[in-house]
Amino acid sequence: MQHAAVKSGDEEHLITRAQAGDEDAFQELVRRHQHGVFTLAMRLVNDREMAADVAQDAFIRAWRGLPTFRGDAAFKTWIHRITVNAAWTLKKRLGRHTATSLDDAPPIADVSLSGDLERAGENLELRERLRGALNQLTRPQRTVVVLKDIYGWSHGEIAEALGITVTAAKVRLHRAHHRLRDHLEDER
Fold first, then answer.
1. Which of 82 and 123 is assigned the larger pLDDT?
2. Is the pLDDT of residue 73 over 90?
3. C-alpha pair distances (Å), 23 with each of 56, 66, 70, 98
4. Residue 72 is part of a domain; what is its CATH number?
5. Is residue 91 part of a domain?
6. Are residues 86 and 138 both part of a single domain?
7. In Å, how far are 21, 60, 64, 83, 177 from 86, measured between CA atoms?
8. Burial, 183: exposed, middle or buried (Cβ in 10 Å; 0-12, 13-18, 19+)?
């Protein structure tokens, strides 16, 4: 418990220093969060180069917006919201309006081959089926599924990040889950 409090306090100290213009403190925040930001970007845009651009844009936006960061949410949540917005902006600018493949995306779940190989094979098959089903979703539906089901965001956090109402976030998620279920049932 003590270690978590020190780490949290340490991050708060880095944020305070970065808000005062300390670039080294901000670089440490980037170092701590770059993997999570890139992974989220990759899951949203499904292209390594685009994900790198999204991550870079997100950190630039964070640097510029840091003076207004109040700490109402965790820094991780804040930077993830910025990442979602950066991904949407880039995809709109590039005119990509269709769902993309998840072939190059980081795995949704790790499969351990050290245990039961049959179960590992089933997990790999399920992951491939899920990838196929996610590819059938619209971009807005896929985004909501990734944020809710993979990242565990609340409907309120999703709504705020996407600039929609909580009801709209719930409806998108419900429709996405329905489409996922239908697609997975059709494959049987």
1. 82
2. no
3. 15, 12, 19, 38
4. 1.10.1740.10
5. yes
6. no
7. 23, 10, 14, 5, 25
8. middle
Q: What is the pLDDT of residue 109?
A: 43
- What's the one-letter identity of residue 33? H
Q: What is the pLDDT of residues 103-132, one digit of tens each?
A: 444 444 444 444 455 555 566 677 777 777
Helices then strands, counting H and E runs in the chain, come out as 8, 0
State the pLDDT at residue 138. 84
Choose the final residue of a domain: 40, 66, 97.
Answer: 97
**Residue 134 sits in the same domain as residue 85:** no
**Domain-embedded: residue 109:** no
Annotate 13-82 with three-state secondary structure: HHHHHHHCCCHHHHHHHHHHHHHHHHHHHHHHHCCHHHHHHHHHHHHHHHHHHHHHCCCCCCHHHHHHHH
Parent domain of 60: 1-97
Between CA 11 and CA 17 the distance in angstroms is: 10
**Is 69 domain-assigned?**
yes
Q: Pick from 18, 20, 21: which is nearest to 29 by CA?
A: 18
Distances (CA, A) of 85 to 59, 78, 143, 168: 12, 11, 11, 17
- Rg of the Cα trace of the chain? 18
Q: How confident is the model at residue 96 (pLDDT cuts 50, 70, 90)?
A: very low
Indicate whether 120 and 61 sit together in one domain: no
